[in-house]
Records
---
Amino acid sequence: MEISNLGKGLPCAVGKLLPQQVRRAMKLTAILLTVVCVNVSAHSFEQQTVSFSGKDVPLTAVFKSIEKQTGFSFFFNYSLLSNSKPVTINVHSVKLEVLLDLILKVQGFDYYQNGKTIFVIKMAHSTSGDSLIGLKKGNIFLNVLKGVVVNSQDEPLAGATIEVVKEGKNILTDAFGKFEIKNAPQGATLKITYLGYQPKVIEVDENESIRIVLELADNKLDEAEVIAYGSTTQRFSTGNITTVKGEDIARQPIQNPLLALEGRVPGLFITQASGIAGTGVTVRLEGQNSISAGNDPLYIIDGVPYPSQMLPTTTGGPLDVLGSSGASARQPGGNGNPLGFINPADIESVNILKDADATAIYGSRAANGAILITTKKGKMGPAKVSLNVQQGEGAISRRLNLLSLRQYLDMRYEGISNDGLSITSSTNYDLRVWDTTRNTNWQRVLLGGTARYTNIYSDVSGGNNTMQYLVGATFNRNSSVFPGNFADQRIGLHFTVNSFSENRKFRLQLSGNYLDDDNRLPGHDLTSVALTTPPDAPSLYNPGGSLNWAPNSSGSSTWFGGSNPVAFTLAPYENHTRNLLGNLILGYKILPGLELTSSFGYTNLGTNESQLNPLIAIQPASRPFALSSANYTNSAINTWIIEPQINYDVFIGKGKLNLLLGSTIQQNHSNGYVLTGSGFSSDALLSDIHSAATIVSNSSVASVYKYDALFGRIGYRLMDRYLVDVTARRDGSSRFGSQNQFHNFGAIGAAWIFSEEHFFKHSVRFLSFGKIHGSYGITGNDQIGDYQYLNLYNTSAVPVPYQGISALTTAGLPNPYLQWETTKKSEIGIDLGLGANSRILLSVNYVVNHSSNELLTYKLPIITGFTAITENFPATIENTGVEINVNCIDIKNKDFFWKTNVNLTLPNNKLVSFPNLKISSYANSLVIGKPITILKVYHSLGVDPTKGEYVFESSHGVTTSSPSPGVDQIAIVNTLPKYYGGFSNSFGYKHFQLDILFQFVKQIGAGYHFGAQVPGERFNQPKSVLGRWTSLGQLTAIQRYNSSGSLASSWIYEVSSDANYSDASFIRLKNLSLSYQFVGSAFIRAHLDDFQIYVQGENLLTFTKYLGMDPETQSTAALPPLRMLTLGLKAGIK
Amino acid sequence: MKKNTLIYKNWKVTHRTLLVLAIFIISGCKKLVNVPPPTTGLASGSVYENDQAAISAVTGIYTRIMNSPNFVSGQGVTFFCGLSADEFTLWNGITNNAEIAYYTNNLAVNIAGSELWNALYPYIFQCNDAITYLNNSTSLTPAIRVQLLGEAKFMRALFYFYLTNLYGPLPLVLTTNYTSNALLSREPQTTIYQQIISDLHDAENLLSPQYLDGTLLVTSNDRVRPTKWAAMALLARAYLYSDDWGNAENLADSVINNSTLFKLSSLKNAFLRASLGNLEAIWQMQPVTTGQTNTQDAPLYIITSTGPSIAQPVYLSNSLLQSFEPNDGRRLVWVDSVVISGKVFYYPYKYKINTLNSPVTEHQMILRLAELFLIRAEARAQQGDISGAQTDLNVIRSRAGLPNTTANSQTDLLSAIMRERRIEFFAELGNRWLDLKRTNSVDSVMSPACIVKGGNWNTYQKLYPIGDVPTDPNLVQNSGY
């Protein structure tokens, strides 16, 4: 049989591409039980006339008569006709069509003709229905269902999937969101899905053209997640991705969006360097993979890579007030963090990509994961203005318990007498010159100020169906707690335009962000000064307001080091950064499902810094021998990137195939210099470099980084149940020697949504969703800085060149064989949704990452001329982790909701192998089987009860007060967190909403109980030093007071011993936000559609046993994170 | 067939795009990741192919030394050795643990001791790099290549001289191969001296007898580049330190005999820059830092009217002051004092310009003629030439306004020479500390002196500890640390 052969011979994979009628025929072949075949006549269907006359004749009899008259044969299912009624009819020489209409249509049957066969079928729709349009197209009779899919803003959703449920037929909507289903069966069920929207199932009813409105997904499973070169949902993702929404970021009064991720993302550990505005932020995603290359994730903002470190400024100078962002030895960074120059208010969402499946497509840049930031886009509708005004205050959240005046003085007297020295010595200014009855709490004076926070954001958005726009502006000001007038002030602009051509095949998206940040700070963090200045120190200022230098009789300042603690405030630091991000995407839909796009991105992060050192900040007696000076830093990082891509979505069989192919061409240009001017005729001229008598260029950066790649991805989703995803990338980077510039990376990910299986659906009813996913792949790390493979001489500029000759000095040891560091990532995870609509969503991921071919800063003895060289080393580091995330809608009814999120990460890191570790330069810092972050420290045996001096155990088990560095560091301290995570709750009652986020970390860290200097010297100390050794045989934790420096060595050993490390775990009420939404006719009349007031708090409470200033920064020189409290008002005007 | 055309159409479009993309990528690949060398640096090879760059590279060594005051100026050899020996008193207001450790001879690896080791080996790398490339260079002007090669060898000898005197046996690094260098062990001091002497002999033959300017082709009145004479002077010192009296005498002789080039200056002028007529200078170094266009020693040692401070932490010890003979001109011209709260602080005043932005009248003195007279005196005394030794010693004494020496036996003469060296070279590149050690008098002198400083003397303290032990498995720490 021709028909059945045709049907059987076609592979199902190309089913979609077959003409509709053929497919229909195939179906019939399978369904029909009986086949009637008769001879073939010579007349065509249209020309054929027939006659028939009879009363109560069965249809089959009529068919037989027609077959005899015409030569056409009938093809039908006997069971179909079993319900038919006999017909009474009398016609003469009528068209065959007319007769067939008369006998079949009235009974609810239909027919069509193909060749010499007339197929009799059940009519697909009731006769009264208009929604199925019976078309007579040529001689083919078709039913066509038409419709359009839009979102609640009436924007068409292009590429939505329409599934005709029982037939397993899938089609995609076109650029206008329109679709057309030919031969749709009567009463068909359609399932419409679109990424990030709630799926919708509809029975096709009697509308002529269906309009389907999809609502945004309200459960975590179906919310859109941005991934590399595309998007997905948690439901269908094969990777490990966490999304933080813009609204969560907006709840926190912060300036760096990274800080809003703290405690929210499993596997992500964030540490801020200090509480100063613009501070450095260290980001570690799923552990530390590299011993000495960079460990920063890849940041992508709207598709454009963004720097993870600022350019280096002057090293070791006072410019470190901002603190580091965890730069590595081989990828030096400046202070502060580049993400601090991204306006949190512009962010729509942040997606954190962790495993190989999600990141391998970024190749050599993705070993440490990727953080994708998407900025806000305009929405269709009339212009809408929104305004958000916020004002608040901040203060330090913790103070240390220091010695009182009496205790301090007693410590000094005891220390001096312990050393057999005389108190009358002229240099004991704190006892001899200063008023020892004066008592000042320096923490209050220097750190006790109030930081004021102001944030104003406004945007206008709107558009029609071919163009949408959003334009927003921000003003933000954050002052400091230090005495003096310091503040970080920023102005930001953001715009985005989306546009479509009339046929919606061409699209354009242009967005731009600009931020201008002017950060004025004292030249130095005053925290350590506040902790160590003796309580009897004199007033900082003279009655007139000038600095009090408290001179002795010979005119020399009696302050420690001759420097008034607040002299730094007269030596201001100013950081003026301008950040421009531009991004253009052009897309053209060649065919439904096939789109060619190209993105063009540009970023320019430019910084001007100045650090002024006026003479007025130096004690008067030293001024004749000092020069006023100023450092000026000017640096810029420019990146451009072009990424042409082809994306093809197609249904193959019962599954959907996604193909992506693309290429990256990227260039980074880093340029910068640091100039020092000196010898100004007046302090007033310091900010003008032209007024300097001598100008020296301290350093310059001019590096080019080029990067080129080809990448692809194949994803296949079968029956919404089985998913597989393969990615590959070939990378080239200029950071490596010519022999090793290219490398391939790739990953495979797979998932099984077992809850979709029938056996599961019926047996386990409490589980609404269940997915197992896993991935394995290889990614790389090229964060080693530029030109490391070259043997370079750099210019070393000096004010007075030697014999007038500019000097060249060796820059470092070259290594032309440098290669990528590779990280093999494997991950397995399970996602479970419990209750209706996956009310409780549990995700557990187990991660194993192996990094090898380590780019090591191989420590060298200085006899080689340098202390280090970068080398690939066959060491292997393993990061494992268990990441647990639970989202739960505890209660949700008309007036009240309660949502909970808990995330917990249990990280582990270990050095798996390191060939010849014992003879390597890492012998004293790494141990196989232990984390690479361990510290090898001395093992303290406490205080020798006879001598009152710290003693240690040597490697030979001998007790000594002077252990040998490199030999006797026998104790191992592991500061890696044991676990960390966050716990957040959202409550809503009518128009109130309350959000609470707790962050917790279990770890140990260096404390402050031994003090910042040798107890007994001219520094105030924590109260813990009171437990010092005083008499023979006494067992104490603190050695005797010492003022001569003779016990300095044992004190330093003790501070770098295991005794200095103790519990630094903490639970912090990181964020609290309470809002009230006003509603009512008055607001509607005032065109206010969203009017709310809110209170936000940051770092409100910290529960810790930590023996120091702050368990997060763990520094006695850095201002702890501030406790902020703000009040705000938000309004939307239509 | 319709279905086939549909598939075909799809593929045609995809294919074409793929093809375009593939061609684009394959053709661009290599080019797209090749970057030119940075504009902020020069590749090593090209440095020594060009006269100007080669001069800049070797001059870079001098610039580094003078810009980071950790060797011949500022807090370098003079400062640390002065603290270790009996020259300086550390002001009691100082809490800097490193300074206290040097002063009380109580060095520890985690506090201080390896500063000069860490400072000088990187300079040796640059010398080794220069020697390697200069030996093979064919494109440089011959006179320039020879002079630069001589300078690099001279400097390498100078660095090893101080290193071995401070730290004892040393790893002898003569190449830039870090893989083998990182595993070097220590060579005995005699081997180090052999290398120093061999380098200096090479330098003597290579270096110009004329003082040159920055072009290396034109003579200069300043004496800030090493010459044949500087090599010979340092060689005389190296022979003296290795007890090779005959060679020490001969070399000192040759330098002293060049009386057209070298003459003792008056005490007042002995530390002026050579171009101001100070012919005592055999080799000086030019200051390069901001404001202090004169030396860094003057602002470090000259105590201002506010008294000792962190910036001026030392003054002259009583023991040194007491060892001046009455009417010694050096006590008047090279020592000054300030009175603070009734206490007198005496300080070195060889360099006198401590104010900023003054005209440059002083250069940092490294080698001067007076030392050669004392080297020859000592060498002669050791060889039994009593009158020759007396003559040389008296040259120095008479310049200081002192009568001729009364010492007339070899022993007396040698100790007179030592006393004279202590006075002549106080606060000058650690001469005292080095003399004490090479003459084996360090224990007898330092035992009492260390108590005065608040420490306890142990013989092992004559060597400083080294910092490289953890990174080089074959390096052994100096005993006692």
---
Amino acid sequence: MDVASFLQQCGIGITSGGFLGLIAVGYTLVYGTVGLIHFAHGDVVMLGGCLSLAILSFLVPVPVDPLTGCLVVVLAAACSGLFCGCLNICIDQFVYRPLRNAPPLSPLVSTIGVSFVLMNVGLIWIGPTDRAFPEIFLETTRSVGGFSIAMADLLVLVIVVPAVLCLYVLLRQTRFGRSLRSIAAITRVTARSGEAGKLVIATFFLSGFLGGVASVAAGVHATTINYQMGHQMGLYALTAAVLGGIGSVPGAIVGGLIVGLIRAISVAFLGPRWAIASVFLVLIIFLAFRPQGIFGKSKTRGGQR
Amino acid sequence: MTHRENTKVSEGAVLSPDIPLLSIDRLTVQSGGIPLIDELELDVSAGSSVAIIDSGRGSKAALLDAICGLRSASSGSVRLDGRRLKQGFSAKTFWGVLFTGILVGLLCAAAAVDIDRLWLAVVKRGLVVDEPFTPANFGRRLRSYFRAELAIDRLAGNWRIVTADGREVLAVRRDLSEARELRNQMQAAVTARRTGPGVVPDITDLVGDANEPQRELLLDETTLDRLAAGKRRIRFRGWSAFICGLFLGVGMSLAIWQRGRRSPEVAARAGVARTFRSPRNFPAMTVFENILVTVEQGIYRKSSAWWPHINKANCIERTEELIRSVGLIDQSFSFASDLTRYEQRCLGIARGLAMDPRILLIDEPADGMNTQQQHALAGILKDVCKGVLTLVVTSAGNDPVALICDRTVHLSPH
Amino acid sequence: MLALAPWFYPALAGGLGGQMTSVLIICIAALGLNVMVGFTGFLHLGIASFFGLGGLFLAILTVPMNPLEIGFLPAVFVSVGLTAAIGTLLGSPTLRLRGEYLAIVTLGFGEVVRVLFLNLENVTGGTQGLGPIPPPGSGIFVTGIDLGREFVVDSRWFYYLSLIALFVVVLLVRVLEKSALGRAWIAVREEPLAAATIGISATKVRLSAFTIAAAIAGLAGCLSVASIGTTGDPNAFGFNRSVAILCAVIIGGLGSIPGTLVGVTILFGFDIVVIPSVDSWMQRIQGQVFDVSLFTLGSWRLALVGIALIVVMRFRPIGLIPSRRFAAEFQESKQ
């Protein structure tokens, strides 16, 4: 394998890592505020993909030029993001909120229940087979300086990079972002209403929004969606969130990039069958050396209680 | 920073001339940059009792945490019987690390030599050519795989000559003995090429015959070279993967061991027992079970066998004795979470005693108790522990419990 | 709480017997999971992989394609032993992690095993699996009847075999619960800090629970594979199966043996038995009334299971038959 194709493979890995990171941020945000692993997040993203498939099929029945294409995709991403955000809020309010004070593993079962329900909805919506994303651009690749970049990857970058930048601005500069970070740093939010409650709603919306945006990127990148895509991507994204240190947003993004890279490299060298195994092996080895993830906080050893 | 400690010895104390059981040497514990304990020096001899008094918050618990390993000190040391409370690098650790390394190495090597194909070559192919599965055959096939020799396979009635891993088909014949002979010739050529790169073996009758109905691959120079290099390739892969895996495994287990060195279990095994200010008993276990589990763990701790035998009757007897000594006999079978605060504290002390420890650290026993309860606790401690066990009691002020101790140490505030 | 529910099932032959057998087998696996999650309090998302490994080892050891072909009972022992060993190996580096990380690691291990199943085709048979697996007792003749043939012909035999195995496992878990080890497990779950200060090495205790859970799941896997006849589709041993068993355990009530059995029976019985029956009933009715089948229950299967999970957790978060301890803990945390 020569250097050029290796680099190209890395490029693919990083672009897929971008949207994996966005989904991972969704998991991390919810965990940081409510202390719950929101297993249904992957399926929410999948439904966002279904919606964006419908929108794109409607708006772009034939391939168009790059500019219109980008605009359409951004529009689809925004709609999908809104949809997923609202869906996430509904799930939280109807299913998770009554269980805030439940014994520790019970909300997990509800998450799984929601995941099954959403997966079934996806099954009914788009059927049991893969559905292809419409071709958006007339030209599929473009060569830049000797490398050929797929337009699909370029599109993914167009979606992912602004999303990450906006996220960064949101978390660092705004009041909402600051309170989110301070909550995550100190305690878990268990109150049902009031300021903390509003924060929880906002968190769920944000994680859903990012997931919806990521779903469009994922669909463009993989060119197909499937009703089980939620589980598969969710698994990678959750691994990424854990690798980066669950509860830490920059960790989730970095973890996503790393997971995407590992996946692409293992596909290149070992074949696509071993991708998930290599990702998990890397995770296990990494956690043996640094159990809190990349940016996670180490276990506090305080006797005070 | 000034030395924060001054010792005030109360009358009637007997200072034992032995080596101190617990020796704290220039201990500093910080919390977020603020030193809670600063360069503390303290010696506690066996059988004596010390009360540590400090009106401020946090330092007392921090001290006890540091002694029993729940919190790491920024500098200084704590020694029990002259030895630091850290898990040493014993022979058991060494073998464990080595074993893990070898295991991970084997796994990596198995992946590198493609265990799937190995299984095919060693187990399944024998069946195909109807060879009985004896250890000798097994060994032979294993060796030939690692020498990257050619083998005979069968597909749809034809006999094929393949590379050991089954990836490449070199020739096809209908008759088994003909295939065997051809294989031997090819293998001889490959072995000859392997021994000397410049050797040009006689391969004239291995080149394909135009009259043959099945066209076969020519055993030309490049193929020959590739086959000859097969043995070195597979051995290189196997060994390099094994060594990488070995290092990885050793590294991982050392990292994990390193993290667990100074943990509360180590201190507990050395004989340090501790109670907590807000009682940490096992809430959904009964009083009886709480103490029973501690007694059992005490026995595990003392015996060095891997799976020590526990005499159930003895344990139950000891548990009852302990419950009686703290006066909880009526609540033996209620859940620990149902007890009052005073009773929970008694339970905590009983659990501490159940460990059969060498030193008992009691964290603010008088906290939240009324005078009567404080006297009761003091009575319990005096009857059961004093003189027999080494005690370290922390307290916010001079309360009855602290007064039973031989010595008092004040941690002076900033 | 000797609430060993009386399993007086009438003798069932035919298809329903086969389904009941698989429910029983999953009960066994769920008990293993209960040891890990219920007693010791650690989330284990990959139990189905040990289930699959047990079946795989049994298949490798007994299938006629492989030269090893040893009898059923020794093969079961070896498989369970190997599965337990793998459990120990996986557990040792990972059990020091915090709860959530451990969950992901078990999840990952489950996926890795699934991928290994699929890809090591010569060892595991890939997507087709290894088979046919000779039934237990083949070659053993009792009063002139080949036991092995009996197993294949009448599904009741496997049913009774599974029932006996379940009984044994229930006894085993009960004995463990009351032993010193069981108390140590519960202590580590309730107050890991306090447990550490009395000298319980949390890692060793968790490791023992993990190994035992792996061994029990391996036993269930052996039985399952023997009753089906092949190892079958490796995707059946993946995350979905693990999660389903976990949900069954939690719904039934963590840490309680009768709860686990009830949970599995309800969840899997619902899925395997009730839905197809109701579906065929609905088909018939629709056929009579509308002359065409409009609404198939089968395609909403996932959603129904999901809704069932949500509803049960909403109204009885502690589980259907919670153990006394969990009820007490829940009360305590509510205050």
